Amino acid sequence: MVAAMRTSLFITCYNDTLFPETGRAVVRLLERLGVEVEFRPAQTCCGQMHANTGFRGEAFSQAKRFVKLYADAESVVIPSSSCVAMIRDQYPDLINDLGNESLRREFKQLLPRVHELSELLIDKLGVEDVGAYFPHRVTYHASCHGLRALHLGDRPFRLLKNVRGLDLASLDNLDRCCGFGGTFSVKNAEVSSAMLTAKLQDVRSTRAEFCTALDNSCLMHLGGALHREFAAMRTIHMAEILASTEALPAEGLA
Amino acid sequence: MNHPNMNPRTAASFPEAALPVLRNAQLRKNVAHATDVIQGKRNRLVAEKADWIELRDAASALRAHALEHLGEYLEQFEERCTAAGGVVHWAADGDEARGIIVDLLRAENASEVIKIKTMTSAEIQLNPALEQAGIRAIETDLAELILQLGEDEPSHVVVPALHVNRSQVREIFARRMGLEDLQDDPQALTAAARTYLRQKFLSVPTAISGANFLIAETGGVSIVESEGNGRMCLTLPRTLITLAGIEKVVPRFRDLEVMLQVLARSATGERMNPYTSIWTGVTPGDGPQRFHVVLLDNGRSAMLAREKERQTLKCIRCGACMNTCPVYRQTGGHAYGSVYPGPIGAILTPQLMKLEHAQTLPYASSLCGACYDVCPVKINIPEVLIELRAQVTDKERESERRFFDPIYLGMRMANEVFASARRFRAAQRMARIALWPFTGRDGWIHTLPGLGGRWTMTRDLRGLPSETFREWWEKRGKERAR
């Protein structure tokens, strides 16, 4: 049985606006596992977009806001691997270079309590079987940040393998980027599209019904192209698969 | 095909330069095939090495140490190389290096010079300077020869003609060497190149080389290669001039044990490269009797002074970052507008240009991190890319022409929006209204104006849902309170 735990959901700016169903699924999943979920309405963005585009001062403002907001949180869960990577890999230098001593201290104390969703489930809650049911063929796209920055390793697969009814299709060239890269997708739209085309060849050849990931930004990219070409596949965040049960299937599938 | 411009001062921006390549199916096929083959070999040979992580740590530490004490090791190299009969020259920039080399060749009355393994010479645009001085440069590395005869440019640091396939090589050789019946099997092609080059090796008395490593302890220089053409260039001429970036130095002879292992496995997927040449000064009666080393700075000491960027100089030019890079795999090397392409080029070239040119290169990456994973000396390329983006932005945002640039404008506005949850909510509502006219009956957006059109040119975008997450959360809270 899962130990009683409280977690604060940092939904991220783009999930909040574009993919609220992912947030609802995280809440449903964690509450089902006995976790008390809170949501701090003052939250906005982690600053990744600004940092990766070169707007360091702005990124720092967002970083500072995040640290202040969650300084007293028991734990923070984020259903977006690239935002977690931003906090782990880029906050240290931003806060060191631009922050004061007290912010540095607050950040240092907060950092170990910030978790990506699959990390929270496996490392903190110790569950691999979340009691989900999803009778579909699914392939998993390992987002670059999840794979190489967070080193999620086999965590996502352990979670998916325990979903009843799920037929897991392995994806070739799992470690290759889909070409999203934030503002890269518009600054270098043609190259980004060529990368996407290459990725989709592998994704389509799985003959899966769903392509899932722990990051909606890659899925927005892959899903946007799949929709454009009327492909018989759609994208779905892994939280929605894990939240899905026989009684309550994922939204839009009932 | 247009001749690729490899001068970062005048080359087109990366997105522009990538366009013709993306439309060149043959080139992309060649690049995809070659990078697949090399990367596959590299992965197998790294996997078989049980102590790869330790080896990589050692290589990284070794390069970092050499850079931290670069001044001492360079002076030591100069002293030992001079004692062994070499002459060491110091060049602050490309101008000085070109001047030194042209003067040395003039003193030899050279009308031709053979070249091997020197990307640094392309960095300083040496060949045009030689031509102006009436000296014909002949590339002797097989790939470089193909490119020189084909009037093409290198697209990879280890496999410069990676974008050219066998039948294209046949065509170039047949045309330029007058061999109409030439076949396109590797034996026939190498035999043609051998016949052509042997003549040059035996008749041209002056050579220019690059360097893989300068050995401080002995004053020796090392070059690794696959063909043996380098060995010919390094041993047959009377006079040898080596051009090397100042970062190439390693402290001790025994450091090559580590460096050669990581280099061969990372570069070509071999346990050891076929030809490893190491020479120290001059040996009477054996090999070149006059030996010069030109040590080139050209922006390197400025890089050395900066903490995050310094790691760029650890690079040993193995090219593994290119083979694995999903951007390079689509575009090949020419789009980078520099002799240094791929992820390492995207951080090296803008720094060599002091960020006055090549400003789009730090953005030529999705920051996927594959390059950092394979780098045998652990250069955190994404970290440097982001640092350079920040420097480009800091510089550009002051200029008036950027004020209404959609990205700069958008980033400033987004910052105001993210500063308060109230503003963020208002922006979410406004976005819903603004995007409504573009949203189709299926709830998806198929076309957007302006910058958004760069997205919708190949991808749809799901329309904004009628309720944000935070609105749902509030509603749920209220229902529960009831």
Summary keywords:
heterodimer; A: 254 residues; alpha/beta; Glutathione S-transferase Yfyf (Class Pi), Chain A, domain 2; Rossmann fold; 2 domains; four-stranded parallel beta sheet; 13 helices; 50% helix; globular; B: 482 residues; Fumarate Reductase Iron-sulfur Protein, Chain B, domain 2; 3 domains; six-stranded parallel beta sheet; four-stranded mixed beta sheet; 12 strands
Count of the separate structural domains of chain A: 2
Q: What's the CATH H-level superfamily name of the largest domain in chain B?
A: NagB/RpiA/CoA transferase-like
Give the strand order, joined by hyphens, for the main sheet of chain B: 1-10-7-4-2-3
Summed over residues and divided by their number, the pLDDT of chain A gives a mean of 97
Number of helices of chain A: 13
Task: Write down the overall geometry of chain A.
Answer: globular
CATH class of the largest domain in chain B: Alpha Beta
Counted beta strands of chain A: 8
CATH topology of the largest domain in chain B: Rossmann fold
What is Rg of chain A?
A: 18 Å
- Strand order in the largest sheet of chain A: 2-1-3-4
Major β-sheet profile of chain A = 4 strands, parallel
Mean pLDDT of chain B: 96
The low-confidence runs of chain B, each spanning 5 or more residues with pLDDT under 50, are none
Distance between the termini of chain A: 29 Å
SSE-based structural type of chain B? alpha/beta
Q: What is the alpha-carbon Rg of chain B in Å?
A: 26 Å
